[in-house]
Amino acid sequence: MKITLRQLQIFLAVAQSGTTTAAAGLVALSQSAASAALNELESLLGVRLFDRVGKRLVLNDSGRLLLPQARHMLDAAQTIERQFAEPASGSELHIGASTTIGSYMLPAMIAAYRKRHAGARVRALVANTADIVDAVVNFEVDAGLIEGPCHASDVDVEPWMTDELIVVAAPHHPIAASGRKASFRMLREADWLLRETGSGTREAVEHALIPYLHHLPSSFEFGNSEAIKRATAEGLGISCLSRAVVEDLIESGKLVELATPLPALRRHFYMVVSSHRAPSPSLAALLEFCREWAALPRPD
Question: Is this prediction's pTM over 0.90?
């Protein structure tokens, strides 16, 4: 059997794009060459990998069986290339982080990691939790740091660190201005500013609050926590965010933490890696550094 990495690359491109024409553009080949390579792969394996549905190619059972193995083989080859292409300049790692982690923690983490590992290069992808998990599954990043539960298969998930969520409002918001502890009724009737669906923060907030409020009406939805805290400071509603996100506006007096009858709201952050990934020494070093970072004492 003489399966090539190029054939597997084209197979993955077709699985991603749905046509040999689109796949050819992804791998810089002509459509005929891409189609021929796919036909050769199917001939070598003795099976069809796709069902033809109209003009699209859709993975069948055999294609879905091959998919994680093909990703694993190409990832291993790419790891070898990265390790030996420029050995003097150090390793390069691709890390994904969901929005809160990527915006408020990752820059300091990368700076500290590079001090310890001189010459190491880190490329970061910051997106919502669902997108980061997809990037891990598709080998687009070496590891992910996420702030919400992971529902995907084919990944290994490790609890990483604990984060505190607090309810905040502008000082002139009616609940804050009343000077009283917010009741459950006041919280149920408030306008809430929330992250978009698919965000780990959104899922964590709903998981924490709905058992007590039964319903979480959204006045506005935003694509990142920075926009939510700024809108909250303008009095558009109240929000539940990581203390790490809002501590600067609390210190400046533009936001206040509301006293509520809610219990302490905490959530876990997680590290995720593909269960099909071939671990490298540089990735192992990065994951160990992340564990050590999580164990460091944090200022109150």
Answer: no
Structure tokens at 183: 């009741």
Over residues 45-88, the pLDDT tens digits come to 999 999 988 889 999 999 999 999 898 888 888 777 766 654 43
Concatenate the DSSP letters of all residues of the chain into one string: ----HHHHHHHHHHHHHSSHHHHHHHHT--HHHHHHHHHHHHHHHTS--EEEETTEEEE-HHHHHHHHHHHHHHHHHHHHHHHHHSGGG--EEEEEEEHHHHHHTHHHHHHHHHHHSTT-EEEEEEE-HHHHHHHHHTTSSSEEEESS----SSEEEEEEEEEEEEEEE-TTSHHHHTTSPPPHHHHHHSPEEEEPTT-HHHHHHHHHHHHHHS---EEEEESSHHHHHHHHHTTS-BEEEEHHHHHHHHHTTS-EEPP-SSPPEEEEEEEEEETT----HHHHHHHHHHHHHHHS----
Compute the half-sphere exposure of residue 59: CA atoms within 13 Å on the CB side of its CA. 15
Q: Rounded distance, CA 182 to CA 78, Å?
A: 54
SS3 of 37-54: the string is HHHHHHHHHCCCCEEEEC
Amino acid present at 186: M
Evaluate whether 66 touches 11 at the Cβ level (below 8 Å): yes
Distance CA 15, CA 35 (A): 13
Q: In whole angstroms, give the CA distance from residue 80 to residue 77.
A: 5
Taking only the tens place, the pLDDT of each residue in 141-153 is 999 999 877 888 8
- On whether the CB atoms of residues 103 and 199 are closer than 8 A, the answer is no
Q: In 3D, which of 12, 3, 4, 74 has the Cα closest to residue 49?
A: 12
The CA-based dihedral angle spanning residues 7, 11, 12, 18, taken in that order and rounded to the nearest 10 degrees: 150
